[in-house]
Amino acid sequence: MQIQGYFDLKFEALKDAFAELFDNTQERGGALCVQIEGETVIDIWAGVADKDGQQAWHSDTIANLFSCTKTFTAVTALQLVAEGKLQLDAPVARYWPEFAAAGKEHITLRHLLSHQAGLPALREMLPAEALYDWSAMTSALAAEQPWWPLGHGHGYAPITYGWLVGELIRRVDGRGPGESIVARISQPLGLDFHVGLADSEFDRVATITRGKGNMGDAAAQRLLKVMMTEPNALTTRAFANPPSIMTSTNKPEWRRMQQPAANGHGNARSLAGFYSGLLDGSLLESEMLAELTREHAVGEDKTLLTSTRFGLGCMLDQPAVANATYGMGASAFGHPGAGGSIGFADPQSGVAFGFVVNNLGPFVLMDPRAQKLAAVLAECLA
């Protein structure tokens, strides 16, 4: 496989490990970027971007980064907290009065950002087209009763997070949440990252495909079993209500909407650049960064049915949990996206890491491809 791009010779082993991913005939395309103390040490890409294998992955290819988007959204919300427009511990209903319905009057932004609010899913099935109707989704969530009482654990909100946090951003910042994210993060840092993609950018978006035959790890199999056998379970509803969530990735209407839980589009360079911007103080003052990266919730996740550990809109490292460690330092923080893409930072080594793929793996938290690359990076730094 021909690898394009730049790498510092000290990181040749990492370039080789990236190339080895393509020994798997199902692998399609991807990119890897690592910055250390703000300096790019590797920025490479390879493979194909389209379904038919005709279009090469280019320097400017972007892909749907799924839940990698969540940390961008959290940082935007924390910037608004720093400006006094939001408060972490004020009731959400202060900014969104309808949200107080069904016993939610004490839920705060902090609860939303750390997946403790009890709103990872909607019980009543919605039509497929509701996915693209912002007011329908936010109204449904404002009326929803939490799935568990405050203080009784946490459950990852794979997609509702985008409407919940996004609606607060929209109300206090006066523009769509994707526009806020781009204006506050992408533009100041010069990142090729979008939440709500212009049609003019569609020709450089990688088509997302799914691998065949790999059943994933035990956590993935547990999740799949529930979704196949328990249609009304919290987990099933979280990923499949509206039913279009799982099937919309390559559709124009998905790319266009501003869904800041799951439809950010960018490249490995934009992920690494974002985490460099967090490490160097460009995006948040140290007090807010400490809130972002402080443990808020840890243990068995009511949605993902595996152990998760959250800060505010980011996943924290669990060094002793095989599917939940970034494989660098114990203070690493970031966010994986469905199927393999990931962005994270390791403050101890000054590393900002971005990895993007368009062949989805079946794993719930960390994809072994990303973990392998992080492990090789750690060896290069040793």
Automatic annotation (TrEMBL):
It comes from Pseudomonas marincola. The keyword DNA-binding does not apply. Residues 16-374 form the Beta-lactamase-related domain. This is EstA family serine hydrolase. One of its GO terms (molecular function) is hydrolase activity. The keyword Hydrolase applies. Keywords: Hydrolase. The lineage of its organism: Bacteria, Pseudomonadati, Pseudomonadota, Gammaproteobacteria, Pseudomonadales. Gene3D superfamilies: DD-peptidase/beta-lactamase superfamily (3.40.710.10). It comes from the Bacteria. PANTHER family: BETA-LACTAMASE-RELATED (PTHR43319), BETA-LACTAMASE-RELATED DOMAIN-CONTAINING PROTEIN (PTHR43319:SF3).
